[in-house]
């Protein structure tokens, strides 16, 4: 692990130097190299990457830009799914003072572009050939009415399980569970041994992340699409959806008493320390394992949520560029360009737990989970089983997403029945649709 981290730091530094076109060749004293970099300007970046692994990944970008004469003004707003970040963004835009770049997901990007708040990156995108290398599923959001407004930095997927290898060995579990019942049998074994079976972070976006995996496992990709993308009433009230809610209640019974309100990285920490058997979470969880110097297949295992093999629910972090003053556009363009640099995409995603947002990047440097992630993504994309994550804003607009969050959370944390939950779900979605 240490080697990987060092390597990544090296890649980042080397990358910064290589891309710092202004580091003069005649500058013979390496010590003075930084001082000789022309000051390009500043980028103010709004994001919610505040967990250890996330901050480290962001550091790769920051370091690279600083090496090119761009100073970094950090604007972190903690809170998964970016909900809080979007609220802060709203007040900044209303005050006529937007940040340079904002981490953003799916439908939120469209909303801001529709408002006319975003910059136009078409010249850069054409020059760099983005159209040919960014997967179509991402371009559908990076571009608004054909115009590029964002640089996608990664592709995450949400239907993953992260398990503590030693705990699994102790429980006698030798292979990844293939379906929901096999998962339950592992959770039962952990319970018998007195280990918290499931590390849950009880926050709406995390419960929704679990919910979409359970729904996909229960009803398959067609059902997922009908329910969360087409927002079809029959799917929302179907037996599959009822079963999904029942399964959520069952999973809740494997959480510890303190799950309410817990941050996702603390839940990951429980698995890392062997206090819990497993966590269902997007692959940003891998960033936490790596940050704790844990090694895939040795210390932890990654596999698709049982019953969702062959399907990928994706979310991609994109840096949306906002309309800024003329003296800030050079730094902004440099950031947009760097984010899409193939070497950067490798260096960043090795640390973040995600996979590159370009189809032309080799998987050679990625670990076992990363290689699997890239392979799954390519196959799902070809086979029509690449689905936008509902919980992370890639299936439906924010209003619908939030309406689903409310119903899922209420059901998960109360004694609302599955029959009532599906009725509430259909009504909430109907009311939130545009
Ligand atoms: C983002 C990830 C982030 C996670 C937890 C997701 O919505 O896409 O990049 O690590 O939230 O903060």
Keywords:
434 residues, D-Maltodextrin-Binding Protein, domain 2, 3 domains, four-stranded mixed beta sheet, 20 helices, binds beta-D-glucopyranose
In brief:
The chain is of the alpha/beta class and 434 residues long.
Topology overview:
Layout: H1 2-19, H2 33-36, E1 41-47, H3 52-66, E2 70-76, H4 83-94, E3 101-104, H5 106-114, H6 122-128, H7 130-133, H8 136-142, E4 143-144, E5 147-148, E6 150-152, E7 156-157, E8 160-164, H9 165-171, H10 180-192, E9 196-198, H11 204-229, H12 233-236, H13 239-252, H14 264-272, E10 276-280, H15 284-291, E11 300-304, E12 312-315, E13 318-321, H16 329-339, H17 342-352, H18 368-383, E14 386-388, H19 398-412, H20 418-432
């Amino acid at each position: 692990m240490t080697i990987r981290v060092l390597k990544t730091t090296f890649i980042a530094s080397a990358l910064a130097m290589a891309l710092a076109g202004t580091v003069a060749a005649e500058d013979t004293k390496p010590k003075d190299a930084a001082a000789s970099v022309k000051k390009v300007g500043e980028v103010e970046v709004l994001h919610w990457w505040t967990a250890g692994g996330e901050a480290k990944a962001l550091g790769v970008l920051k370091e690279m830009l600083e090496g090119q004469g761009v100073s970094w003004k950090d604007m972190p707003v903690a809170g998964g799914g970016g909900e809080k970040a979007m609220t802060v963004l709203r007040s900044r835009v209303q005050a006529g003072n937007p940040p340079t770049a904002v981490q953003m997901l799916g439908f939120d990007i469209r909303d801001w572009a529709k408002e006319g708040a975003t910059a136009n990156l078409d010249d850069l995108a054409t020059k760099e050939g983005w159209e040919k290398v960014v997967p179509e599923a991402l371009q559908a959001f990076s571009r608004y009415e054909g115009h590029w407004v964002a640089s996608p930095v990664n592709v995450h997927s949400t239907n993953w399980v992260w398990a503590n290898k030693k705990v699994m060995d102790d429980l006698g579990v030798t292979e990844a569970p293939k379906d929901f019942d096999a998962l339950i049998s592992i959770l039962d074994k952990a319970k018998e041994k007195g280990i918290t079976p499931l590390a849950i972070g009880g926050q709406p976006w995390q419960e929704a992340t679990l919910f979409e995996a359970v729904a996909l496992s229960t009803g398959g990709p067609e059902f997922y699409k009908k329910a969360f993308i087409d927002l079809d009433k029959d799917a929302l009230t179907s037996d599959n959806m009822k079963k999904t809610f029942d399964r959520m209640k069952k999973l809740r019974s494997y959480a510890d008493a303190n799950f309410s309100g817990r941050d996702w990285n603390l839940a990951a920490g429980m698995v890392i320390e062997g206090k819990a058997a497993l966590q269902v979470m997007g692959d940003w969880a891998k960033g936490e394992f790596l940050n704790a110097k844990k090694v895939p297949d040795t210390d932890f295992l990654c596999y698709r949520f049982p019953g969702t093999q062959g399907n990928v629910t994706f979310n991609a972090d994109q840096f949306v560029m906002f309309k800024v003053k003329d003296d800030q556009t050079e730094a902004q363009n440099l950031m947009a360009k760097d984010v899409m640099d193939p070497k950067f995409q490798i260096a960043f995603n090795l640390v973040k737990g995600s996979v590159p947002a370009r189809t032309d990047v080799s998987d050679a440097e990625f670990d076992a989970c990363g290689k699997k992630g890239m392979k799954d993504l390519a196959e799902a994309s070809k086979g029509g089983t690449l689905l936008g994550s509902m919980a992370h804003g890639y299936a439906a607009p924010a209003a619908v997403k939030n309406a689903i969050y409310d119903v899922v959370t209420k059901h998960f944390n109360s004694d609302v029945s599955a029959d009532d939950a599906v009725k509430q779900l259909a009504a909430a979605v109907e009311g939130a649709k545009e």
